[in-house]
Design brief:
343 residues, alpha/beta, three-stranded antiparallel β-sheet, 11 helices, 13 strands, 41% helix
Length: 343
């Protein structure tokens, strides 16, 4: 088992592209200033010992060292002691809509990203419940089988996007049916399903599927992502927005939240419907409701002891910093003897 003790420190790695841009800008400024001072041939004669390669190498060493230092401060840890413990909780599955309409931006930054951030917060609030993840669009797939490994849940949540399901559409019923098949009924205990979607169901009878889930003892909750006024669906190419989806007549397609459908699904499934906003995605209210459900006892293997590995990364970072300090911008003796421009 591998984890970071302080995973939020890894956000420091986002500074790497900024450092690269600053370095490129500095190099461009140095080149411009040098050209004002003297032409390239004259500059080489005036400063024959200057090495552009060493200048670049020093920066690369600093950059790698910075990355290793950030990883070291985040403190990578390896689990060393695995124990079986008894836990009490419910079985919970989250079904996430990954259809193209979830890219609409009436929630910030868009419906899907807002849902993912809220789900990551939900995982942090879970104590001993078992969690599974289903993704669906035109079809439904199990992204993560029911588990108590919350680290794995966070990892799988971070990879969710609209391109992981090949068939587009919104088959809420298929997601509910897959959830029904995914629960373990032998161990008893309460079971719940949270469907996170904009409610544009085009493929099947989701209400009938929710009624079937209720008969199996599964409470079905729905969270509506979007607004009643709706928003256009962005089109992207190589990560850049190039416009919005249009119908066959050239009109911009506007995706609106179908609250009536989601209310009917949750009502048929014995749960509740919550509309997400930028301030509150609604998982908190559902967790409060789930806290009153009967919990089942199950055994789970968890790591209780971890060994730190920060010293390797911090040590390597300090070594690279030291090497970069010792490297000068002057050419070495061998480089001075080599002159590629001599005839």
């Amino acid at each position: 088992m591998f984890r970071f003790e302080h995973s939020y420190i890894l956000w420091g790695l986002s500074l790497v592209p900024i450092f690269l841009l600053l370095f490129a800008g500095t190099k461009a400024w140095r080149k411009s200033s040098r050209e004002k001072f003297a032409e390239n041939d004259l500059f080489v004669q005036l400063m024959p010992e200057y090495s552009n390669f060493r200048y670049n190498a020093k920066f690369v060493l600093y950059l790698i060292g910075f990355g290793l230092l950030v990883i070291g401060i985040a403190n990578p840890q390896i689990g060393t002691k695995l124990e079986e413990v008894k836990r009490e909780g419910i079985d919970l599955i989250i079904a996430v809509d990954v259809s193209n309409s979830m890219k609409a931006e009436d929630l910030s930054p868009n419906r899907l990203e807002r849902a993912k951030r809220a789900m990551l917060q939900l995982v942090d609030e879970l104590k001993s419940d078992r969690l599974g993840i289903i993704v669906f669009a035109g079809q439904a797939y199990t992204q993560l089988p029911i588990t108590t490994d919350y680290s794995a849940a966070k990892l799988f949540l971070s990879t969710i996007d609209t391109d992981i399901v090949p068939t587009q559409g919104t088959a809420i019923g298929a997601a509910i049916d897959l959830a029904i098949e995914s629960f373990d009924y032998e161990k008893g205990g309460s079971k719940a399903l949270i469907v996170v979607t904009d409610g544009e169901n085009h493929e099947d009878d989701a209400i009938k599927a929710a009624e079937k889930a209720k008969e199996k003892g599964i409470k079905v909750y729905t969270i509506g992502m979007g607004s009643s006024t709706g928003a256009p669906i962005p089109l992207f190419r190589r990560g850049k927005k190039i416009g919005y989806r249009q119908d066959n007549e050239g009109n911009t397609v506007v995706s609106s939240l179908n609250e009536n459908m989601l209310r009917d699904i949750s009502s048929s499934g014995g749960g509740m419907y919550i509309r997400a906003t930028n301030a509150n995605a609604g998982f908190g209210a559902i967790l409060d409701d789930l806290s009153g459900l009967e919990k089942s006892e199950f055994e789970s293997q968890i790591y209780t002891d971890y060994e730190d590995r920060f010293q390797f990364f911090v040590g390597a970072a300090l070594l690279l910093f030291l090497i970069s300090i010792l490297i000068t911008e002057k050419k070495g003796k061998l480089a001075k003897k080599v002159n590629l421009f001599e005839s």
